[in-house]
Amino acid sequence: MTLTVLDPRTALVVIDLQKGIVGFPTVHPVAGIVASAAALAAAFRRRGLPVVLVNVTGGAPGRTERSFSLDGMPPDWADLVPELDAQPGDLRVTKTTWGAFASTDLARQLRALGVTQVVLAGIATSLGVESTAREAHAMGLNVTLALDAMTDLSPEAHDNSVQRIFPRLGETGSTRQVIDLLERG
C-alpha cells in the first residue's frame, strides 16, 4: 500500500546502521541508504518525534545451519555510523535477534511514549527490517517502510521483502514522501 498518512505519534526505527554491517557488500550503495536514514532522523527530531537507533551485538541462541558470531570482529563493529548524528534524546536499542522487539524492551518504551506507528529503515531489508516490521505489525502498530532507506545483501531477498512481504505489513514510500508527510503534519 502506498504511503498515505503518518499518525501523530510516529517513531522512526533505524535498524543496524552500524560500522560492521555497513561494510558488507549491499544491493544499493550504502552511502545513499545512510544519507536517507540520517535525513529521516533529522526530520523526526525537528518534529519532536522519537528516533530509535538499533544495533545488533549477537545472534539468537537457536540452532541454525548458518551461525553468526562477533568473535574476531573489530571493537567498533557494533557502533552506529556517525552520519546518524545520534542525539541524547534518541532511544538506543541493542538487540541479539533479527527483529528489534523480540530481545529488547522497545515495545514498552514505544508504548510509554504513546507511539502508534513506526517508520522503518536500515540493513538488511529481508532480515532486521522485515523481522522488525513483522513484530511491529503483530503488536498492532501501523508500519511504514522507507524503501530508499534500506538495502540488503541479496537482490532477490530485498525484492521479495519489498514486493511480497511489505505490502502485507504496512505502507511503503520514499524518504521524501515520509518527510513531506512529517512537514505537513
TrEMBL record:
A GO molecular function held by the record: hydrolase activity
Pfam families referenced in this protein's UniProt entry, alphabetically: Isochorismatase
Keywords: Hydrolase, Membrane, Transmembrane, Transmembrane helix
CDD domains referenced in this protein's UniProt entry, alphabetically: cysteine_hydrolases (cd00431)
Transmembrane regions listed in the UniProt entry: 20-44
Coiled-coil regions, chain positions: none
UniProt cross-references to InterPro entries, sorted A to Z: Isochorismatase-like_dom, Isochorismatase-like_hydrls, Isochorismatase-like_sf
Protein name per Swiss-Prot or TrEMBL: Isochorismatase family protein
Organism field: Gluconacetobacter diazotrophicus (Acetobacter diazotrophicus)
